[in-house]
Amino acid sequence: MNSLVIEVEEARARRVSVSDDSLTVDLHDGRTVITPLSWYPRLWHGTPEERNNFEIIGEGTLIHWPQLDEDLSVSGIILGRRSAESQQSLERWLKERHAQPPTR
C-alpha cells in the first residue's frame, strides 16, 4: 500500500500595509494578497495611525491590531474570509469607541 504525503506549508506574512481602502499582505512565498478594507469594519473605522499599529505574530500566520482589538489570520485573508463580526457587536464596539477619549 502506497501513501502519498503532501506537506502543505501555512502561508506566512512577510510585510503588511494598510491604506484608506485596502489591506495588502506580502507573503514569504512571493505572493501578494490585496483585500478591500471594507471587509474588516474595525480596520475601516480605525484611524491611519491605528491601522498602521499592528503586529505580525505566530511566525507570520496572524496579524494583530491591539488598538482596534482585531486579529486576522493570513490563511483567512487568502481564502477571502471577511470579518465574521455581527452588526450588533460592531455597533457596540463603535459606541464604546466614541465614548472614550482619544489616546495619545
Provide structural commentary.
The protein is α+β, with helices and mostly antiparallel strands and 104 residues long. It has one domain (13-99): Uncharacterised protein PF10387, DUF2442 (NE0471 N-terminal domain-like). It is built from four helices and six strands. It has helices at 41-45, 48-51, 74-78, 87-99, and strands spanning 13-18, 22-27, 32-36, 55-57, 62-65, 70-73. It has a three-stranded antiparallel β-sheet with strand order 1-2-3. The longest helix has 13 residues, at 87-99. The termini are far apart. The mean pLDDT is 90.
Detail the topology: elements first, then pairings.
Blueprint: E1 13-18, E2 22-27, E3 32-36, H1 41-45, H2 48-51, E4 55-57, E5 62-65, E6 70-73, H3 74-78, H4 87-99
Antiparallel strand pairs: 1-2, 2-3, 4-5, 5-6
Mean pLDDT: 90
Unreliable spans:
none
Q: Classify the helix fraction into a percent range.
A: 25-40%
The geometry reads as: elongated
Q: Strand-and-helix sequence, N→C?
A: EEEHHEEEHH
* Continuous helix count: 4
Q: Tell me the radius of gyration.
A: 16 Å
Find the CATH superfamily. Uncharacterised protein PF10387, DUF2442
| Total strand segments | 6
Indicate the structural class: alpha+beta
Adjacency order of strands in the biggest sheet:
1-2-3
- Main sheet summary: 3 strands, antiparallel
What CATH architecture do you see? 2-Layer Sandwich
CATH fold type = NE0471 N-terminal domain-like
Distance between the termini: 64 Å
Q: How many domains is the backbone divided into? A: 1
Percentage of residues in strands: 25-35%
